[in-house]
Design a protein that fits this description.
About 15% of the residues lie in helices and about 40% in strands. By secondary structure, the protein is mostly beta strands. It has a domain of about 110 residues. Strands 2-1-5-6 form a four-stranded antiparallel β-sheet, with no helix packed on it. The radius of gyration is 35 Å and the shape is elongated.
């Protein structure tokens, strides 16, 4: 189940368990918030499109943290005019965790925590290798050595004897 929702003036495609960075919200960390400007709602293949919003649909979220984005550099220059302008800024963002997408009359299931979000998104650590997993693991075939034709040609070629250089000097009379 996913939804297209407007959060702080921007539209996002969200579903339960997503972490989203949005423009700074006026909410404290850990606070639960709801967004009711849902433009599209997909409920198990049944799509509801709003006119302009889907009636009764909401997106429930929890504020995780307030952060600053990456530094954005603005540099302006005009050639041969001696004009250079340097400016930069960092955007203020809020990270939110989507608790659920609710259609009309739905209630929120159990709340997600950061640990449960990792499981939902499939970001678990690799399982510890056991003897069984190592034995059943498919190994890639070893690379075959390249043919030694070039080396064979070099060995088969007869070595030329080094020719002696003879120099002739002119006799002076």
């Amino acid at each position: 189940m996913y939804a297209i929702v407007e959060i702080a003036g921007q539209q996002f495609k969200v579903e339960r368990g997503n972490k989203v960075y949005v423009h700074r919200l006026e909410a404290n960390e850990g606070e639960k918030i709801e967004f009711d400007k849902v433009f599209l709602l997909d409920n198990g293949g049944k799509i509801s499109v709003g006119n302009p919003t889907v009636e009764g649909a909401k997106v429930a979220a929890t504020v995780i943290s307030h952060v600053k984005g990456d530094k954005v550099i603005i540099f302006k220059k005009k050639r041969r005019k001696g004009y250079q302008k340097w400016n930069n800024h960092r955007q203020s963002l809020t990270q939110i965790l989507i608790q659920g997408v609710l259609a009309k009359g739905d209630k929120l299931e159990a709340e997600l925590t950061a640990e449960r979000v990792v499981r939902v998104q499939g970001l678990r650590r690799k399982p510890v290798e056991t003897a069984e997993t190592v034995a059943t693991e498919v190994k890639a075939p070893a690379k075959k050595a390249a043919p030694k034709k070039a080396a064979a040609k070099k060995a088969a070629a007869p070595k030329k004897a080094a020719a002696k250089k003879t120099t002739t000097k002119k006799k002076e009379d």
